[in-house]
Amino acid sequence: MQILEVLVDALRATHLVLFAAGMGTGLYCDFRMLRMFRDPIGSSEISSLSNVHSWVSLAFCGLWATGVTLIYVRTDFDLSTFSPKLWLKLGIMSILLANSILISRVVLPILDANSGRSLAELSPTNLMIVSQIAITSMFCWTSGLLLGSSVVLRSASWEVLVPLAAGWFLLLSVFGQIVVTIMQRRMHPKIQEHA
Question: Taking the alpha carbons of 20, 83, 72, 64 in that order, is the dihedral positive or negative?
Answer without folding.
Answer: negative
